[in-house]
Each structure stands twice: as structure tokens, then as C-alpha cells.
Design goal:
mainly alpha, 3 helices
Length: 91
């Protein structure tokens, strides 16, 4: 079972390559932000798989921290984009 967890973690890590392409070539800031959210979600999944494979509870704590940071980042992006949209409409 540990081999399955590690294989899934490697598969998710390879999927981040597609996300990196979107971050580098994304046509808009929203596309880039969604790709960054993909990084956060995938990092949480990888950490949870590694925690299960190695029996390390500290990795679960780090995964929870990453999930919290991903949510805060999304809120900060939306607030910033909302303010820019309002100033673009007013001018």
C-alpha cells in the first residue's frame, strides 16, 4: 500500500508540470491564480499521501497549514482584483 501512496504522490507531482505551464503562459491573472490554487491543492494531497505512507502525523499538520494558506491567498487575490475592477470602471 505504501508503494501505491508514493506512486500517486509522484503522479500528482508530475501533474504540477501542466499547472506550471498555465502559470507561465496563462492569458489572464485569473488563469494564473487558478493554477496557483492547483499547486496548493496538489501540495496538500501530496503531503497527505506522504503522511499516510510514512505514518508521519506532522505532515498532516503541514498539509492543513497549506490548505489554510491557499484559502487566504485566494481571498487576497479576489479582494485585490475586485478593487482594481472597481477603479477601472470608475475611470
Amino acid at each position: 500500500m505504501q508503494t501505491l501512496y508514493l506512486a500517486l504522490a509522484v503522479f500528482l507531482l508530475l501533474n504540477l508540470g501542466a499547472g506550471m505551464w498555465r502559470v507561465l503562459r496563462g492569458p489572464s491573472a485569473a488563469d494564473r491564480m487558478l493554477a496557483a490554487q492547483l499547486f496548493g491543492t496538489t501540495a496538500v494531497a501530496i503531503l497527505l499521501l506522504l503522511a499516510q505512507a510514512h505514518g508521519n502525523a506532522a505532515l498532516r499538520d503541514v498539509a492543513l497549514l497549506f490548505a489554510l494558506l491557499a484559502a487566504v491567498t485566494a481571498v487576497a487575490f479576489v479582494r485585490r482584483a475586485w478593487e482594481q475592477g472597481a477603479s477601472d470602471d470608475a475611470g
